[in-house]
Amino acid sequence: MHFLYIDPGTGSMLFTILIGLIGAAIYSLRMLFMKVRFIISGGKKAEANKNKIPFVIFSDNKRYWNVFDPICREMNKRGQDVVYMTASPDDPALKNSYPHIKGQFIGEGNRAFAKLNLLNAGIVLSTTPGLDVYQWKRSREVNYYVHIPHAASDITMYHMFGIDHYDAVLLSGEYQEKQIRAMEEPRNLPAKEVELVGIPYMDEMKKRLVAAGPAPEHPTTVLLAPSWGPNAILTKYGEKIIRPLLNTGFHVIIRPHPQSFLSEKDRMDKLMKLFPESEQLEWNRDNDNFEVLRRSDIMISDFSGVIFDYTLVYDKPVIYTDARIDVSMDDAWWLKEPLWTTKILPEIGLQLKEDLGSMKEKIEECLQDKRYSEGRNRARQETWCHAGEGASKTADYLLAKSKELTASEAGK
Fold it and tell me: 99 pLDDT exceeds 60?
C-alpha cells in the first residue's frame, strides 16, 4: 500500500492548505452573513459605528511588546482607550498595568487573522507585514491601517509587498520615505501617508541606560553575539574565532542565539566543552541582554538588527560579518539605490574577513579610531529622528488621524 503513503513534509503542506481553505470558507460565510444583515437593516451604519473600537494595536508575537509598550503608556497617559490584540497567549501585554489598555488574546495563526478580517475599528496600528497579501485581509469595517517598523534600518527588508496595503507608515528617517516612494512608483500604488515619529523602543532603551549609569570598571570586554543557522558566526567559524578572541587577552562574553541551543545543540555542547567558562570567558544565556550590552566594549555579530541597537543606543563599535544580503524575495529588490544598511555599516564598524589571526588589532582599531564614533553619530542623525519623543509623536499622529477620520465620516 505504498501508493497511499504521504511523506511528513507533503502531509504538513496539504494540512496547511486544507486549514487555509477552511478558514477562507468560514471568512466568506461570515462576510456573506454580514452583508445580508446589513441589507436587512436597511444599510444603516449606526450600530456598526456604535460598536467600533477607536484604536487597535495588533501584535503577531509577544516579542514586539517592547515596540508597543511606550506607545501604550503614552496613550494611557492621555486617557485613550486601546484594545491590544495579540497572537501570543503569554504576551506581556495581557498583564499590562495601564487602565486604558485592554490586552486581548485572539488566537494563534489563522484564528487570529480570522478575527482581524472581521474587525470593526477606527485605526489599527501594527508592525506585522503582509496586510492584504496573505491570510490577513483588510476589513471593510476598519477605517485606517498604520504600520510601524520594529527595527532602525531599511523599510524595504520585508518580503515583497509587505507594506503595500497599509494606509500610512510611521518612520524614523527620511531615507525610508524615499524607499517607500521608490517602491510605489513602479507598482502604480497610491502614495501612502508617511510620518516621521522616531523609534519609541530605542528611546526606552536609552532611558534605561542613562538611569543605570556607567558600567562598573572592567577589563576590555568583547561580546560575541551571533545569530543561528548555516551562515551564523559559530556555524561558519566556531573555534576558529573563539580561540583568536581568547588569544587577545581581552575578556570574552559569548551569547549564542537561544535557538542555537535547540537546533544546534551538538555544536553548542562541543564548543562549550572545548571552551569552558573561566575568568576570561563566560557563556551568557540571560533572558535580558541589557547588562551584557552595557558592560561590553565592542560587539562581534552577524548581520542583525541588534547591531543598530548596540551602536545607536550604547554608542559602541561593532565588527560584523559579510553584509551582502539576498534581496531577491524582498521589497528591496525594486530599489535602484543600495540599501542604507550596506552603506552605513562600514562607517560604524569593521567587516570580519577570513583573516582571524589579527583579532586584537581589529578590536583596538574599532575602539580607538574616531571615524567609527563619527559614523555612529551620522547613523543616528539619518535613522533616529525625534530621539526621546517617539511615543509622544506616535500618539500625536494617531489622535490627529482619528480626529480627521471622524470629521470626514461625519461629513458624509
Answer: yes
Segment 158-204, tens digit of pLDDT = 888 999 999 999 999 999 999 999 999 888 999 999 999 999 999 99
Domains, the chain, ranges and CATH? 42-148+388-410 (3.40.50), 205-383 (3.40.50.2000)
Any residues with CB less than 8 A from the CB of 86 and at least 6 apart, and which?
58, 59, 60, 62, 93, 94, 103, 104, 105, 106
Grid cell in block for residue 370: 574616531
pLDDT of residue 231: 77
β-sheet bridge partners, residue 57: 84, 125
Per-residue pLDDT averaged across 377-396, rounded? 97
Least confident of 37-41, 139-143, 298-302, 344-348: 37-41
356: nearest Cα among 243, 250, 235: 243
Q: What is the mean pLDDT of residues 86-90?
A: 97
Q: What is the pTM of this model?
A: 0.83
